[in-house]
């Protein structure tokens, strides 16, 4: 390896590390709300109707996802005009500040209706920030990557979402085990939110040292940046067609597979199977620990055989496997029940924990198939001067609307029908639609150059 190649490799890994640390922390900030949904339901809503409180908490969780496309437009435009680095520094600070403040909001018993109102406002701020963060990080890494290794390098960014959930659960479990259950339920749940300010500060000082991406810097120096990225992205028929195909042929399906395989799986264990909070969290952590390396595997593989075949295989596999997987989860909860916790929740045997983890691990692998290659796919689909805006919107509608609403819609369907498997209808239907549209209309991108 020549000295020049060695320097370039060091540079790209520094870019990946700085981008990934910040993105991981933003996902951590975003996910602790979902991970603590069952507890937050009792803190920010009246306690006389637990089901309504839980669904309301999931709705607040979903609010942060619904607003993400607006963040994609606002910060995508800023990223295509002012630059990638400045924009994802701004989103990092907005996300961290909002998360910290959620940890300070008084309970419903203290301030009444103002509690859910304040949390809703902060969730909106979180969603706006995340809408700008991912597109910036993915674009930044992609614009530093060689054409033949873009799937591999951007797949490291893809791991941050799972690692963010992993870290959030780790911090929550660490906090929970450091105190009694009553203490955690009373005030300990606030600690993971408050810790985010430390993590964000560290990440900010790492990111501030980064330089602008070379492709954008070159474009800016030549005076070729877009004057109106929103108009160019969505006002031109050809580019709008690409945005819609990316949404309905890839990111919508990817979004529901992602949130079914992790968040709905956690919700299903806790609410439908009545498995104890700590055990269900540990099961997710085990599945993520073994499943996360597959993001890198499929990202690297997509550089060799293409993004599309891997993503489409993941989508159709999810459609076929979800019902058997969730029936298997229910069967394990019945056959491997070992005892009951003090709060009446089910405790699984050691064998049951590993069997349940194995079924969720399969779901995580499906996530990695559709999510691992998608950053490279999206950045390759659009030209540099409108890339941040163009890729961010379909990604965040797919993940924020279609994906983010999955736990709420699925739980609502289960509550309405009384059938614990009925919630799977939604993710299976969306994944099937994306598979059909993607298979017939999406073009392969992995041979595309990005020197425009």
Automatic annotation (TrEMBL):
Domain Major facilitator superfamily (MFS) profile: residue ranges: 15-446
Membrane-topology descriptor: Multi-pass membrane protein
Residues that span the membrane, as ranges: 12-33, 53-74, 86-105, 111-131, 152-175, 187-206, 242-265, 277-298, 310-326, 346-379, 400-418, 424-442
Subcellular location: Cell membrane
Pfam family, one: Sugar_tr
InterPro entries per the UniProt record, alphabetical: MFS, MFS_dom, MFS_sugar_transport-like, MFS_trans_sf
Gene Ontology terms for molecular function: transmembrane transporter activity
Keywords: Cell membrane, Membrane, Transmembrane, Transmembrane helix, Transport
Superkingdom as given in the UniProt entry: Bacteria
GO cellular component: plasma membrane
Official protein name in the record: Putative MFS family arabinose efflux permease
Organism annotation: Anseongella ginsenosidimutans
């Amino acid at each position: 390896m020549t000295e020049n190649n060695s320097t370039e490799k060091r540079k790209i890994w520094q870019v990946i590390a700085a981008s990934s640390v910040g993105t991981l922390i933003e996902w951590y900030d975003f996910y602790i709300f979902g991970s603590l949904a069952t507890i937050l339901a009792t803190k920010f809503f009246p306690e006389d109707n637990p089901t309504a409180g839980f669904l309301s908490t999931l709705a607040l969780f979903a609010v942060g996802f619904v607003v993400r496309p607006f963040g994609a437009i606002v910060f995508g435009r800023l990223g295509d005009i002012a630059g990638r680095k400045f924009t994802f520094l701004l989103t990092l600070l907005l996300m961290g500040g909002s998360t910290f403040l959620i940890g300070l909001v008084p309970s419903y018993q203290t301030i009444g209706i103002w509690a859910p109102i304040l949390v809703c406002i902060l969730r909106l701020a979180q969603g706006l920030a995340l809408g700008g963060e991912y597109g910036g990080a993915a674009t930044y890494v992609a614009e530093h990557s060689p054409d033949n290794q873009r799937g591999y390098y951007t797949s490291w960014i893809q791991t941050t979402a799972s690692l963010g959930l992993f870290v959030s659960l780790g911090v929550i479990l660490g906090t929970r085990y450091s105190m009694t259950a009553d203490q955690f339920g009373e005030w300990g749940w606030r600690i993971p939110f408050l810790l985010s300010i430390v993590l964000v500060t560290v990440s900010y000082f790492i990111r501030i040292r980064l330089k602008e991406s070379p492709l954008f810097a070159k474009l800016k120096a030549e005076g070729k940046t877009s004057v109106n990225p929103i108009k160019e992205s969505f006002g031109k028929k050809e580019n709008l067609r690409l945005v819609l195909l990316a949404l309905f042929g890839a990111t919508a399906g990817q979004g529901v597979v992602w949130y079914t395989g992790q968040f709905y799986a956690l919700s299903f264990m806790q609410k439908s199977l009545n498995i104890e909070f700590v055990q269900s969290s540990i099961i997710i952590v085990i599945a993520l620990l073994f499943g996360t390396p597959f993001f890198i595997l499929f990202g690297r593989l997509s550089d060799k055989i293409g993004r599309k075949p891997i993503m489409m295989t993941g989508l159709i596999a999810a459609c076929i496997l979800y019902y058997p997987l969730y029936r298997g989860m229910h069967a394990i909860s019945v056959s491997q029940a070992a005892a009951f916790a003090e709060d009446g929740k089910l405790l699984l045997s050691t064998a049951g924990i590993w069997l349940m983890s194995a079924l969720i691990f399969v779901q995580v692998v499906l996530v990695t198939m559709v999510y691992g290659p998608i950053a490279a796919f999206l950045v390759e689909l659009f030209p540099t001067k409108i890339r941040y805006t163009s890729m961010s919107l379909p990604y965040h509608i797919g993940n924020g609307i279609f994906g983010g609403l999955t736990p709420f819609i699925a739980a609502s369907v289960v509550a309405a029908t009384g059938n614990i498997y009925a919630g799977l209808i939604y993710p299976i239907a969306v994944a099937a639609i994306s598979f059909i549209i993607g298979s017939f209309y999406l073009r392969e991108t992995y041979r595309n150059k990005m020197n425009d």
